[in-house]
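Why does residue order matter? Because the sequence determines the fold. Keep that principle in mind as you read this record.
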Amino acid sequence: IIIENDKVKYDKKNESIISNSETKIKVNNNYIIDTYNLKYLRSKKTLSSDQKTTLTDKFKNKIETSDFIYLTDKKKFRSKNLRLIDKDSNTYIADNSFIDLSNNKIAAKDIKIYFSKNGSFGEHSRLKGNYMVSSNDSTVISKGVFTTCKPNDKCPPWTMQSETVTHDKKKKIIEYKNAWLKLYD
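Structure:
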C-alpha cells in the first residue's frame, strides 16, 4: 500500500497517521483510492475516512462512497452509500457494501442496478433487490424485481419478480428462480 499526500500527522503514541487533505492510496497496483481526511490506525490495520471517497480498479470500475473502512491485512473495503459504475456503464447503488479486493467480489444491501442505456436490456432496464453478491462473472440478487419500463411516478406496466435473480455477465442473460410476471393496467 502506498499513500500519497502533501502533509500528514504521525501520532507515535496511538500509532496513527492522519491526513487532513486530498490523499491517494495505491493498493497492489490494482486499486486507487482517492479520499480526504484519511486516518490510518496501525494497531487495527485500518485505513478509513468519513469523507467522499472514490475507488477505481484496473478494469476501470469506479466506486464512489460517503465513507469507508479498509482492512489492510484482509484486503476488505467496507462502505456506505455506494455508487458503482462498472466497465460496461451499469450503475449500482446500495446503502451498505463490502468488497473483497483480493477476490474481486462485492456484497451489498438494498441494491439498485440501472443497466447501461446502450446495453442489451434496453434504455430503462433496472433491477432492485434486498441484497447482492457479485463477482467478475455473475451477480446474484435476492428478492429481485426487474423491468425495462420507463420510470414514472406510477408503478411500471410490468415487472419480473423472483426469489433469486442471477445476471450472467458473460452471456448477458438474466435467470430467475421462482419467478412471477406482474402486469399492471
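The chain has a mean pLDDT of 89.
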